[in-house]
Amino acid sequence: xxxxxxxxxxxxxxxxxxxxxxxxxxxxxxxxxxxxxxxxxxxxxxxxxxxxxxxxxxxxxxxxxxxxxxxxxxxxxxxxxxxxxxxxx
Length: 89
Description:
It contains two helices and no strands. It is an all-alpha fold. It has one domain. Helix 1 packs antiparallel against helix 2. The chain is rod-shaped and about 75 Å long. The model has no long low-confidence stretch (mean pLDDT 84).
């Protein structure tokens, strides 16, 4: 399961929430507020996809490769243990 697929959505929604509060506090007009929120959410969605790609490249993929190597070592150890058990009989 890909745990990083939610990163762009979370980044975009968090930024949209912050911009919504800021536009309300600064008393933007409705048109200006909607334009600001839309473009900021679009920009942060793109930023979220960039963050997701970086996380996938530098964190998730090496972790998957490390786990695969550990599983391979465990299976080799089990096979060696079975071979030694067969030889002792």
